[in-house]
Amino acid sequence: MSGELFLADAAATEALGRSLAPVLRAGDVVLLSGGLGMGKTSFARGVLSALGLAGEAPSPTFAIVQPYAPPELRMPVVHADLYRIEDAGELDELGLDDALYDSALLVEWPERVPAHFWRDPLLLTFAAGQSGGRRLTWHASAAWERRWAPR
Prior knowledge:
By secondary structure, the chain is an alpha/beta fold. The mean pLDDT is 86. The chain starts with a strand and ends in an 11-residue tail after the last strand. A hairpin with an 8-residue loop joins strand 3 (65-68) and strand 4 (77-81). It is 20% helix and 26% strand. The radius of gyration is 14 Å and the shape is globular. Helix 1 (10-20) crosses helix 2 (40-50). The protein contains four helices and seven strands, in the order βαβαββααβββ.
């Protein structure tokens, strides 16, 4: 299942992220793809906010992996930014595979590693829209069908 929609601004992008939170569960992989400034972190902030995070979530660009756990959120989530990853072998050190046992993953810049690394992802690709907002193209793997369809 796939589709496309327009997001007028960062607030709309965060609101869409909040709409994902109610169906997110441990083992889920949400891949956030797109260029710099296209809305990946805004979407992740919306998800984290809806899961209970008080305050603004920092971008994990420098930390690479930012874990969240109860009571901070209603469920464990790992927010990762792979922009600085040079080799897929570095992922073993990050522990993302282990995190899937009890956490959901929000992964920015997933294209930095081979696509087969991700199991049953929800792929969201953000791009500049013609009139200033963002265009979101999404593809839901079988694990996501009937669980979430953005509007």
